[in-house]
Amino acid sequence: MLAPFGAAFLQRDPQAFGILRRDFRNEADRIATVQQAAQRRISPELASALRVQNQRLRPSPSRQQHLDQLCEPGPSGTAVVVTGQQVGLFLGPLYTVYKAATAIATAKQLSHESGIPCVPLFWLQTEDHDFAEIDHCFVPVEGKPPLRLQLAPSDPSLARTSVAHRTLGPSVIDLLDRLDAELASLPYAASLLASLRRTHRPETTPSDAFSSFLGELFEKEGLLVLDPRHPQSPQVARLALPLYRFALVEEKTISTALVTRAEQLQQRGFSCQIPVRPDVSLLFHHLHDVTGPRYRLERPAWSVPDSRHDKLRLSESELLSLMDREPWRFSSSALLRPLIQDTLLPTAAYVGGPAELSYFAQLGPLYSLRELPEPLVIPRARFRCLQDNTLSWLRKLNLKASDVEVPRAELLRSHLLTQTDQPQPDALRASILSDFAARLDELEAIDPALRDPVRRARDTINRSISHAIERYAHALTERNVTATQRIDRLQAFLFPNGAPQERVLSLPYFAAKWGPAGFVQALFSSLATDPPCADRQAVRELWL
After folding, report:
1. Are 46 and 239 within 8 A, CB to CB?
2. Is pLDDT at 429 greater than 90 in this prediction?
3. How confident is the model at residue 445 (pLDDT cuts 50, 70, 90)?
4. Which residues contact 137 (CB under 8 A, 6 or more apart)?
5. What residues have CB less than 8 Å from 152, skipping those under 6 apart?
6. Is 440 helix (H, G, I), strand (E, B) or coil?
7. Which residues contact 44 (CB under 8 A, 6 or more apart)?
8. 292: left (phi > 0), else alpha (psi -120 to 50), else beta?
9. Which of 221, 303, 386, 454 could form a Cys-Cys staple with 444, CB 3.0–4.6 A?
């Protein structure tokens, strides 16, 4: 089976750096990349968009300094460390915060090493239209599965509208009230909820709510934000126009390059994160107007679904003319977005998760086609939050936190079955089947005509005994009620819904318990002891 490139990259597979041109582990590569990026300047139009969007956030001297450094760079120039994510409710899963913190720490490290200003920037992925991916979050609840908070369903006609043009809606008030009730006993709940109520209003877009809350969280660090579809910054779409034209006009060249790269990755044992489909562009078209439904442009004869027609067909010349008039009627796919951000910005490094690392493994040929320097690609830091009761349960069960991050049945079986004097299931199964097998062998030896009946009997017995042993193993594990409850509570906090904590749980609980500033400070304290560009990516543990 082919392995994902991102997983191999995190494990420091040497092949990974034969695919990516820049090795973030090498200081000389890091400095050279920063120097090259800093030679480029952002356009006055982008500078204006950045100022408009970031000056809407709560005032921050650090953010203003970063804006000035990027928009009016000195003789040595300014480079950018970019990260990004969908604009999830209350910042979505914890790894969103970890990406931002890693980008900030990386920018500081690169600035120190190169002597060139490097600023951190969060690219808001607001072009996406999958509202179901961002309309909810999960909050830990003592002794129970995580609480799911979800915005009320919206008008189905908006299903393919970019999230940039949606609003949170009235149900966000009910979610804030539920969050307030759930977190009320925690020391920083009042100040956290005040911030969330200020930034999350019914009429607010998910993008504005996300950027405002994120901006407050990293106010001291001066994290910049950029929303490519913000209504006050239509010039960003105009600046992306050359990439839109490239994606359309050079579709066949792009597809060929991506298919060739996919084959190269497969030959090295890697799978592609995003399958490449010939005759499908990297470009989306928004029907009717900027808020219209979003569809990927496909051949033949560049077509998209349309409720007014079976298929709306547009010629290349029609699409190019429309791009010139209304560039905001187009948006990028996951494989086009990195090229846009690195064309508009002097990007030295991109901080991403495993999936995004895989994107960049696929994209090398497109950077070459555009004669665009590839950035350093740096894995985001990974964290695991622990608290006193978590540590107590781990000690009583003689487990490490990482031991809990497996399926429940596997954990119960591997841990609890060793704590009993009863026969172990696998040994008991082998013993029973051995006795049956011996008797059946004797029966089969009497007459060859018995071979098929014996075979059927053997299959039936194997299935029946295996089923009985599974029930026996389940009974053994469930008998230890106290240990089972502790494991369930541990998994609800460390491996909720069968996934690592950072991929499910959201910030509010942790910020209410530790304080937003305290939580952020803990992240940076951990990153300071193990810089993000170091050749180590173990999960860092934080104690609440």
Report:
1. yes
2. no
3. confident
4. 88, 89, 90, 91, 92, 93, 148, 149, 506, 508
5. 169, 170, 171
6. helix
7. none
8. beta
9. 454
Instruction: Show Cβ contacts of residue 270 under 8 Å, excluding neighbours closer than 6 positions.
Output: 2, 3, 4, 5, 8, 15, 19, 358, 361
- Which token pair is 161? 């509208």
Going by pLDDT thresholds of 50, 70 and 90, the confidence category of residue 476 is low
What is the predicted pLDDT for the residue at 131? 94
Three-state secondary structure of 396-451: HHCCCHHHHCCCHHHHHHHHHHHHCCCCCHHHHHHHHHHHHHHHHHHHHHHCHHHH
Cβ count near 395 (within 10 Å): 9
**What three-state secondary structure class fits 377?**
strand
Cis amide linkage into residue 300, ω under 30° from 0: yes
For β-strands 136-141 and 330-332, DSSP reports them as unpaired
The answer to whether residues 522 and 217 touch, using CB atoms and an 8 Å cutoff, is: no
Neighbouring CB atoms inside 10 A of 308's CB total 7
The encoded tokens of residue 306 equal 């349309």
Q: Which helix (H) or strand (E) holds 385?
A: strand 383-386
Token pair of 119 as six digits:
């600023």
Phi first, then psi, for residue 315 (nearest 5°) are -75, 165
Identify the pLDDT of residue 341.
96
pTM for the model stands at: 0.88
**What ranges do the domains of the chain cover?**
7-237+334-386+502-543, 241-332, 389-501
Asked if residues 404 and 487 have their Cβ atoms less than 8 Å apart, the reply is: yes
Specify the amino acid at residue 381: A
